[in-house]
Design goal:
The complex is a heterodimer of chains A (450) and B (232).
Chain A (H helix, E strand, L loop, with lengths): L5 H21 L7 E10 L10 E3 L5 E6 L13 E6 L5 E3 L10 E9 L5 E9 L6 E9 L4 E4 L10 E6 L5 E6 L16 E6 L5 E3 L14 E6 L5 E6 L16 E6 L4 E4 L13 E6 L5 E6 L14 E6 L4 E4 L13 E6 L5 E6 L22 E6 L5 E3 L11 E6 L5 E6 L12 E8 H5 L5
Antiparallel strand pairs in A: 1-28, 2-3, 3-4, 4-5, 6-7, 7-8, 8-9, 10-11, 11-12, 12-13, 14-15, 15-16, 16-17, 18-19, 19-20, 20-21, 22-23, 23-24, 24-25, 26-27, 27-28
Chain B lengths: L17 E6 L2 H4 L9 E6 L2 H11 L10 E3 L19 E3 L3 H10 L1 H12 L3 E7 L11 E6 L5 E7 L5 H16 L4 H5 L6 E3 L8 E5 H21 L2
Parallel strand pairs in B: 1-9, 4-5, 5-7
Antiparallel strand pairs in B: 1-2, 6-7, 8-9
Helix pairs in contact in B: 3-7, 4-5, 5-7
The chains are: A mainly beta (450), B alpha/beta (232).
Chain lengths: 450, 232
Amino acid sequence: MRKRGHTSRLGSTWVVLLLGCLALADAPVVPGAARLLTIRQANVIQRRIDGPSASVSADGRYVAFVSFARSSAGVTIEAGDIYVLDLENGSISLETSAADGRLPVTGGSSPSISGDGRFLVYETSAFSSASTLPSVVIALRDRWRKTTDVIGGALAANGSCEHPRISADGRTIVFTSFATNLVSGADANQSRSDVYRFERETGTISRVSVDSAGRQSQVGASFAPAISDDGRYVAFVSSAPLDSAPAPDSPLTRSVYLRDTMRGVTERVSVGMHGAEPNGASYQPSLNGDGRWVAFTSDASNLAPRDSNHAADVFLYDRDARTTVLISRGRSGESANGRSTYPAISGDGRAVSFQSDASDLTCGRGCASSQGDVNLVSDVFLFDRASGGIQWLSRGRRPWMEPSIGPAIDRAGSVVTFSSRHPVDARDVNDDFDLYVRVDASRADARPNH
Amino acid sequence: MESRVRPLGFASTVGGSTKQVLCTSPRQSVRYLTAPALCLVSIITAAAAEQTQHARSTASVATRAPVAHEYVDDEATVPENLGATLPHNVATFGYETQLDLMLRRSLTFRKQCARIAAAPDLHVRIAPAIPPRARFDHTLTRLAFKADGSVQADVAIGSRGDPLELLAHEFEHILEQLDGVDLPSMARRASTGVYAVQESVQEGERFETKRALAAGRQVAREVRDGRRRDGQ
């Protein structure tokens, strides 16, 4: 048996890692070949239902992400920190602890970064004067000016604010809130959540989860917004009947809506074939840059043909053509054999990344056993609208056996991030989630005229 | 061939419902499964499993700030600092020779061990199967998710089949459960890589997975390749 000394093995490992670090800044990007970066998130609390823990700027240069790597060993994890990776020079900046003292924050989560990487929004806990308990608020960080504020002075809000998303132009922020005092007037659905829109330049807040007449429903809740590049369009989930009068005694079902804030029109995106009511809930919307395409998850089986898997699937809605396409298909063309969730659509609308438990998305019957998806856990995939093809992203030359979840994507679809329990390197023996950043220069080169 | 499964008792538990997940030899009842493994996984689910998740949330984590690295594919990602020793949370009663061989020659097995070692409240016990009243003993893994958040995995290795493959196969079943794989749900859908085998109501739910089969074969292959390199 060939033996290698422990010291030399360790030494060679360090050399590889050192070279990897040094190579990061100016590593050549080979056209057609994807480059994969890893960053320690040390996240032991991530679950597959938690959604993305990263956000990619529209220009593909910056990645904002949550990491627990700075936490002390043995300390109960309470909050991670938000960092931003600059893919151009490989630098990583800590954003949450660099507060200027104006905001007593403790960590952050659910980051969203503007198109040029200047503005960053995230959830954080802060103490208000009205309560001894911390509340969840939305922090807005200007990375150029190094300032951090709670948006809209929301420390006075009487409910938590969550799930912020910032438009690519950095002017508009949408978020979910349980507060009833963010806008003037009575809150018709009281402490049930609504979706709000914050204009950064004017500091105004308006309620987005209303019908086309501007009315708020007395029933149901709205949450999980997504926003177009210019902030005009907002997609969100709502169990309120925002496109029709509520049918008496009918159960509230979650639907995906899109509101054109310029025209004041709210339309339902998750619609069944031939005008039928969907037979399941729809959620997790992702909106492309100009608001034409909406990717979302649905439990319904009557949104598009050939959906027979009795599991959540990912769909793509074209607002221009008013058509819905099932994306999470197996190689046979039928709906895939497992649950698919958390779509993230590229800004140009050409690519949709999502996570799936299915094993037949890229490899069906007759697939080489060494390439088959046998890990029984979530993987991350990329759907190309032009070709209709699906690519398995969370793998190396051989499939990974560990779960990969929570994709995020840039405008061109060339940068996709996700979290995975797969070891980041030879020294990683922690069974935790870390961030993977996949850069495919060929997709950036193939950016279409828009 | 004997196809019945040795009836098993479950570890005493507090809270949560109990269900059985049994993996069986393909040659006995599922023609497309070929590994000679037969395993039993008992799962105490629901509340107990949630408590396990909570326990994980309080685990220790690394202490350094994040740094970006180029990902180096495949073998280079296999954790290597375990050396040639089993994880601290694996106790063996036999099979030391085979396990040592697997640790030294199989990258896949070392990777399995790394994940098991990193599971904060998992305890694995490996022992030969005690021949039951039936004519054949079988390879079995019994997992109990306890109310205190700990997980006890009892692996019993039968006398039929390659113990190297069986050990790795059973380790992968443990990892499947740590990953929260819902075997009954996946077995209900076609071609998911999970197959239900139920030979009698008394035996409860039984499943086999392509994932465990692949892992067992991979480890056995890597050990064999190592032997060839060594000229043994």
